[in-house]
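Illustration 12: Molybdopterin-dependent oxidoreductase.
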Amino acid sequence: MKRREFLKFSTASCMALAAMELGGGKAFFRPAKAMASGELPGSLGAKEVYSVCEMCFWRCPIVAKVKGGKLVKIEGNPKSPANGKRVCARGNSGVQLLYDPDRVKYPMKRTGARGEGKWARISWDEALDEVAYNMKKVRKKYGPHALAYFDHGASAEFMRGLFMHMGTENYSNEPAFFQCVGPVAEAFISSMGYLVSGTRQYTDMGHAKAILLVGSHIGENVHVSHVREYIQGLANGAKLVVVDPRFSAPANKADVWLPIRPGTDTALLLAWINYVIQHKLYDKDFVANHCEGFEAVKEGVKDYTLEWAARICDLKVADMEAAIRMLAKAAPNVTIHPGRHSTWYGRGDVQRHRALAILNGLLGAVAVPGGLYLPTPVKTGKSECPECEAEVEEPDTSLKDDFPYAGNFPGNPTAKIIEATLTGEPYPIKLWGVNGVNILQTIPNPYDTMEAIKKLDFIFTESMMADEAAMWADIVLPGATYLERYDSLHTYDGITPYLAVRQPAVEPLFESKSSYWIARELAKRLGVDCYPCEHEVEYIEEELKGAGLTLEKLNRMGGIVSYKANPYRSRKELKLPTESGKVNLAVAHYEDDDFDPVPKFEPTPAPPKGYARLIYGRVPVHTFSRTMNNLWLHNEWPENHAWVNDEVAAKLGIADGDTIVLENQDGKRSLEVKAKVTPGIRPDAIYLPHGFGSRSKRLTRAYGKGASDQFLITHYENCPFTGASSHRTSFVRIVKGGKALDIPELRPLPREIPRFKKSA
Ligand code: SF4
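Figure caption equivalent — predicted structure in token form:
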């Protein structure tokens, strides 16, 4: 497809993903204008509820349309500066989450073996009494750190406060930090002084003259405002450089696509940094006045030439040179995208993102249109209806001790919680609470996770769907979906700052309850002085006071209040939130912890002979494993395909569409999956879209569809800075007709890169 055609297509289709551009309403609970009297199909005549989407973590403001007490449609809130009337396919499909017949409907107690998913219905009182009894018992017998909480998202926040109040250091904000943004968060905080990740990317792609994406798949991972900004930038003529071993959706539109050898991105970035310095392409004024450590960087990267990187990365010098010149020419209005999911290889992950931060600094792409911009905080009040006060007592040996920068972020490394549960060292962990996350489809080596669960005295989940994690629970608590509950205020401090509130479109279905109600009832049973407000609305009203609002006023205003953004600074007034107020090109304090102030290239081991590296990504209509059972989304994309290089496939006798199985270096096999034979992936990698291959029989649509990458990731390493777990350190070969087929090595491996050693 030609680029111009793509842009036309993508404005329609990315948002086809998106694009439910039907009229939204202006008032809370106001009937929309009906065009005819009587009952009509669709959303005409529906009452409109302003809320915030939670089909992914991006939190787009929405309008939920309710008719006859039923949710009939979800649209973007037209007043939202971020997404307007648009929602993506998943946002639209919240309707099917609400009415999914496979939802957890009642509190349940396990009747079979753990993992079997055999339960009996019990009352809320019985369920909460049992959870509270076990929490108290475990805490009394083993101490507070024997309690662990795996959590994600707004629904999990109240109960996280409760676990912290019980004194444990083991809560984990699990998939968001330790399986995702940990390394990039650390790299940019140390370099720029603020967190550039998660839903706060602070990348001004809409005004960029050039964009660099390293392993970021915008358009395959869809977050409406992010995709809008990206498309706006491309439509305005921004050049696009994409570094990816796979011909991804953005590679498809790139001016330069660099199909890099997996594991060598830092080599490319360091060679580019050296090139920019040697060819004096850097922003001299910005570096002299707003950067620290230029000379150390110049010295540290001087041996990393493009010729060296070409061999390591398996790229052409001319292509690398064209790309960096394209980016430098656009400076300072260039987006050197920090990326988000950064838990790739463990060792070296922070330094890869440090290299991206250095490029940002050298090109002066900070606090300017098109570059990284500065947040505009939205002021809200502190609730007088207090949350649980954290009462965490540091244990003699903390699970964070090996990771000097883990302490800058909430909770403990997930991998260490699992390890301690398995070994009892440095202290026993005997009870897990799980909320808002499918721990078996997000944490590497689910086999270890299952073994750890077997060692627990007790495990409970708060779940909307009976996913794999719920299958292992002793007690399952039915959590209300985002369409049935309130959550804390949502403020967005990005390029379009605003404030919105998640509020229920319908009453909780079945016996599901809001996360606030569950946390509060549990707190009462634990004798803990938490959450004195009777209802979460009181809590929200207090927060709104600080913004000069009430819920009623906010709803009268259309559910959104927007604020003036302040993203850019003149060079004279620029002061970053680092100690010096400048970009740390070299991070001096890393030396105190034996880390390099200037990144070095540390090769990650290449696949063992006969294997390819397993890489993964997303499809635009699913949010990880969370949406696989959703009727509309399942119909759009019911299963994944394993991408296999066409030359590799020809040598192995595999045709496009063949049914195969993937086997990893530890002999673990996937469920059956169809091969997608394509020249669009390197011969030393196999790609699987993430989240498929459900093993929960209670998810009747998703069960057994496609292959799970997570169940093949059995080898991982921890990031030495943060303790986050690596996800791209497992390798696979292909099994066809029951026969294991070795992957032929079609690209020579340079001697500097060691091979991964399989255990005997
Ligand atoms: S990007 Fe889509 S799923 Fe995510 S919050 Fe926005 S509308 Fe919802």
